[in-house]
Write a structure and sequence with these properties.
heterodimer, A: FAD/NAD(P)-binding domain, FAD/NAD(P)-binding domain, five-stranded parallel β-sheet, 9 helices, B: Fumarate Reductase Iron-sulfur Protein, Chain B, domain 2, 2 domains, 12 helices, globular
Chain lengths: 427, 199
C-alpha cells in the first residue's frame, strides 16, 4: 500500500487485537507497554476468554484469576489500551499501516455508568442459561458475566428485552446505566496492524454420537468439568453427578474424544491429556475414596509436563486404561456404561461410572466466526497461519494459530505483539 | 482367550506385513492403525473371534503369518462395518478381513468342512450361476458340503422353518430365480477372473 511512502509514515500505528482471551490480553498489554496504541476488541461481555472459565491451570494447579488479575491491572494502568467488549470484526480492507476494519457492536443494554450494584438483577425474575457455566445452571436475565468480570459491568440478555423486561430494569437502575433501546452499532477502525487472537471452541460433543452425550446428564465435557470443580460453578465447586446431585465417586475420563480422529478433528488438541490429569487431581482432592480411570490412546505430557503426569500416576486410585472406548450406553441403573477393548490384555469391558468426562478437543473459533480473507490463511483445520514475506501486518496468536496450552499461548501472543510492533514501525 | 505369544525359537515371517500391504485389499492402510482398540471394542461378535481386528493387525505387523491366516477372525466378521465407521484412522477393517479370508482359503488355511468358508462358497456358487441367490439351493449346498450325515441332520432340523416360509410366501417352489442376461453375467465374471489373473 501507499502508506509509508516518501517518509510520511504509516497512516496508523495503532495495533488492533481481535479477541480478549489470554492471548489477546497478553498481546495488547505487551504492545502497549512497548509504546504502541492498542485497541482490544472482544466478542463476549468480559475479557478472559476460555481461561477465565477454568478452575485451575496445569501443571501447578494455581487459579487463573491470579494471572488474569495482573493483566487487568496492566490494562487499567495503561492509557494506550482501549478495550471494546461485545464487538466483532465484520470485514477488513487496506494494507499494512492502513487497515480499515469494520466492527459490529452487539447491544449490551448497559452503558459505562453501571456500578455493578445488582439492582437490575433484583428487579427481574427472568432466568436464562448461564453462558459462563456452559448452560449448566441459570442466571438472572440481567447479570454480571462472572464475579471477576473485566469490565465490571452488568449485561442484559437480549431475551429479556424481547420479553418486555426492559422498562422494569431501567426503572430499577439508579445510575441511568440501563438502555433498553440499545441497538448496537457498526463503526470503522483505522489501524496499522492486526493480531488475531480469536481462540477456540470446544468440539461439539453431540457430534460424537457413540459417546451418548445427549442421552445422559452424567456424560459431560472437559470444559464443563472445569465449571463443576470451580467455586463459582453450578455446584459451588463440589464434583456432583448432574443427574442426581450425588458425589461422583467413580469417574471415567475419556481422552481424544474427537481429537486424533479422521471423522472429527484429525489433529491432537495438545491440552486434553494434561487437562484430564488435572481433573483426576480435582476428583481425588475432594473424595479420598474416589476412583478415577483415564482411558487413553497414549498420554501426551510433553517435556516439563511429564512431572505432573508422574505425580498423578503415583496415586493408586487413578488407573490408566489403554483403550479408546468404542461406545457409551446408559445402563439399567441410569449410570453411563463404557464399552470397549482394553488393548493391553485384550479384554472386552463394560464398566459403569458415576460421571464420564469427554476430553473434547479445541476447534479454532475462526471456523464458525469471521475469518480474515487477506493477510492470513486458514489451514485445513481452520487455524490461521501467516503467509511468509507477503508484507502484510496481520498475525495470529494463541489457539487461533494452532492448538496451544496457556503458557504456549502467552509465548505466541508476545511474539505476535513484537511482529505487529515491527510491522507498524517499519510500514 | 489364548494368545500365541512370541516364543523363543519360533519363526516369524518378517515380510508378512509387507505382503499384506501389497496383496490385501485395504492392506496399504494398515500402517495407519494406532492400536486404539475402537474396532475390537465396537465389534458385536468380537468375543467369538480368536483375536479382535486390532490384535490381528498387531500380529500382522509382528509377522505371525501362520496364526493370522489360520485365525477365525476374518471368517466370523459379519461385515456390519461398525469398525470402519468408527476407526479414527480410516482403516478399512472389513475389507481387509474379507480379503484375508479369501486369501487364507486360497492358501489352504481353511481346510476341510469349514462353516463360514463353505457357506460363502455356496452363496457365491448360486450368485455366479443364476445371478441371484436361491435360499433353498444355497442352504442345501452349504448343509451337504459339511458331509452327507451332517447335511441330512441339518436339513431335517430346518424342515419346519422351510415349510413355514413356503406357507407364508417367503420361499417359493419351482425353478430358481435367475437374472435375464445370464450370458452377460458369465462374460463379466470371466473378464473379472482374467483381470485378477493379470495381477
Amino acid at each position: 500500500m501507499a502508506a509509508g511512502q516518501n517518509g510520511a509514515g504509516p497512516a496508523s500505528q495503532t495495533i488492533l487485537v481481535v479477541g480478549g482471551g489470554i492471548a489477546g490480553v497478553t498481546a495488547a498489554v505487551e504492545a502497549a507497554e512497548a509504546g504502541q496504541d492498542v485497541i482490544l476488541i472482544e466478542r463476549d461481555a468480559a475479557l478472559g476468554g476460555r481461561v477465565t472459565k477454568l478452575n485451575r491451570y496445569f501443571p501447578k494447579l494455581c487459579h487463573p484469576t491470579c494471572g488474569l488479575e495482573i493483566n487487568y491491572q496492566r490494562i487499567r494502568k495503561n492509557p494506550r489500551i482501549r478495550v471494546m467488549t461485545m464487538c466483532e470484526v465484520q470485514g477488513i480492507s487496506g494494507g499494512r499501516g492502513d487497515y480499515k476494519v469494520s466492527v459490529q457492536r452487539h447491544p449490551r443494554f448497559v452503558n459505562e455508568r453501571c456500578t455493578a450494584c445488582g439492582a437490575c438483577a433484583n428487579a427481574t425474575e427472568m432466568m436464562v442459561d448461564n453462558p459462563f457455566n456452559y448452560g449448566l445452571d441459570k442466571v438472572k436475565a440481567a447479570y454480571l458475566p462472572h464475579e471477576h468480570a473485566f469490565p465490571m459491568r452488568y449485561v442484559v440478555a437480549p431475551e429479556a428485552i424481547a420479553a418486555g423486561e426492559g422498562e422494569k430494569l431501567k426503572a430499577a437502575c439508579a445510575y441511568g446505566a440501563l438502555d433498553p433501546d440499545d441497538k448496537g452499532e457498526t463503526f470503522d477502525l483505522h489501524v496499522g496492524a492486526v493480531v488475531w487472537a480469536t481462540g477456540w471452541q470446544p468440539y461439539d460433543p453431540k457430534k460424537l454420537d457413540v459417546y451418548s452425550y445427549v442421552h445422559s446428564r452424567d456424560i459431560i465435557t472437559n470444559v464443563e468439568m472445569e465449571r463443576l470443580a470451580a467455586h463459582d460453578g453450578p455446584t459451588h465447586g463440589k464434583i456432583l453427578r448432574p443427574s442426581n446431585g450425588e458425589p461422583a465417586k467413580k469417574v471415567a475420563l475419556i481422552q481424544c474424544a474427537g481429537s486424533r480422529d479422521l471423522n472429527h478433528l484429525p489433529y491432537c488438541s495438545r491440552i486434553c491429556c494434561l487437562g484430564s490429569l488435572k481433573h483426576a487431581a480435582y476428583v481425588r482432592e475432594q473424595y479420598p475414596d474416589a476412583e478415577v480411570h483415564i482411558y487413553y490412546i497414549d498420554i501426551r505430557a510433553h517435556d516439563k509436563l511429564e512431572a505432573f503426569y508422574d505425580r498423578v500416576r503415583a496415586d493408586p486410585q487413578v488407573k490408566f486404561v489403554k483403550s479408546k472406548p468404542a461406545h457409551i450406553r446408559v445402563g439399567e441403573d441410569g449410570r453411563p456404561m463404557l464399552h470397549g477393548e482394553r488393548t493391553i490384555d485384550r479384554e472386552i469391558y463394560a464398566e459403569p461410572y458415576d460421571l464420564v468426562v469427554l476430553a473434547t478437543g479445541m476447534q479454532p473459533s475462526a471456523v464458525a466466526g469471521y475469518r480474515p480473507t487477506m493477510g492470513l490463511v486458514a489451514d485445513e483445520y481452520g487455524f490461521l497461519v501467516p503467509v511468509e514475506g507477503d508484507g502484510e501486518g496481520m498475525f495470529s496468536a494463541g489457539v487461533a494459530s494452532g492448538p496451544l496450552d496457556v503458557s504456549m499461548s502467552v509465548q505466541s501472543a508476545t511474539a505476535a505483539a513484537l511482529k505487529a510492533i515491527q510491522a507498524v514501525r517499519n510500514a | 482367550m489364548t494368545t500365541p505369544a512370541p516364543a523363543a525359537g519360533k519363526t516369524y515371517d518378517l515380510s508378512f506385513a509387507r505382503w499384506v500391504r501389497d496383496n490385501i485389499n485395504g492392506g496399504d492402510k494398515l500402517n495407519l492403525c494406532m492400536q486404539c482398540g475402537a474396532c475390537s471394542g465396537s465389534c458385536p461378535i468380537g468375543v467369538q473371534m480368536d483375536y479382535g481386528p486390532r490384535k490381528l493387525f498387531m500380529m500382522i505387523r509382528a509377522g505371525m503369518k501362520e496364526e493370522v491366516l489360520s485365525a477365525n477372525t476374518q471368517w466370523n466378521c459379519t461385515s456390519c462395518y461398525r469398525c470402519v465407521v468408527r476407526c479414527p484412522r480410516g482403516v478399512p477393517v472389513t475389507y481387509i478381513l474379507q480379503d484375508l479370508a479369501a486369501k487364507s482359503a486360497e492358501f489352504g488355511y481353511a481346510k476341510g468342512p469349514h462353516e463360514n468358508k463353505n457357506f460363502a462358497q455356496s452363496f457365491w456358487w448360486s450368485a455366479a450361476t443364476f445371478g441371484r441367490t436361491d435360499e433353498r439351493l444355497v442352504t442345501m449346498r452349504y448343509f451337504f458340503s459339511l458331509g452327507l450325515g451332517e447335511g441330512f441332520k441339518r436339513a431335517m432340523a430346518n424342515l419346519k422353518v422351510a415349510l413355514g416360509m413356503v406357507k407364508t410366501g417367503r420361499m417359493h417352489i419351482g425353478l430358481p430365480h435367475m437374472t435375464k442376461g445370464r450370458k452377460g453375467l458369465k462374460a463379466i465374471l470371466a473378464k473379472a477372473r482374467e483381470i485378477e489373473a493379470r495381477h
